[in-house]
């Protein structure tokens, strides 16, 4: 049949993934760094994903396509759930079970005074774990905390990450290009709801795909129903602060 359906221009798409969580039917996926329609019968052709594409790579066209199938959508979403739920068992690690490397810990960071000449810069990390997949939403180090949401490439690019950004903050780390943005939104929503976060700083790279982590933070904050100051800091590939 001829009907309206989403079309994604691969020449414009940069694989940022912002369109993926915008599709309630789960019809869009990222393959080899490009967004594509998983199957024609999963796309309703309404175009809810259009406004979330910074590259204007998504349009609505009319072409021959399988009819939209709600039952197929339901089955498709059910199949996605196990992958999205994988991190859940990690929550038990803060009780002492599971992998010791994921067990929740809080500790006092090193003094932030300048180190003696020739001495190593002291770490400002005050918690473990840091990966967004592993942190328990109800962790005590989130209470009354300033939260730093860090794209995981940032500490490699910005030399003084510990001193200028991490000191005095709770932190979660993730990659919006390689991980599931829907999971990020759900996990951050839980953290915002269950903790008395005082402020949120999103620290990300200048590359377009890294914008997904800011998108997840905004969506989660809206879903939490709370009003928390949200700051967006962008780091260049050469380690310069471009925007804060």
UniProtKB/TrEMBL annotation:
- Outline the segment boundaries, as ranges, of region: Disordered: 71-122
This protein's source sits in the domain of life called Bacteria
The UniProt regions of compositional bias labelled Low complexity, in chain numbering, are 80-90, 105-122
InterPro entries per the UniProt record, alphabetical: 4Fe4S_Fe-S-bd (IPR017896), Corrinoid_activation_enz (IPR052911)
Q: Which residues form the signal peptide?
A: none
- The chain positions of domain 4Fe-4S ferredoxin-type read 4-33, 34-63
Which Pfam families has this protein been placed in?
A: Fer4_6
Extract the PANTHER family matched here: IRON-SULFUR CLUSTER PROTEIN, IRON-SULFUR CLUSTER-BINDING PROTEIN-RELATED
Name of the featured protein: 4Fe-4S binding protein
The species this protein belongs to is Geomesophilobacter sediminis
Q: What is the lineage of its organism?
A: Bacteria, Pseudomonadati, Thermodesulfobacteriota, Desulfuromonadia, Geobacterales
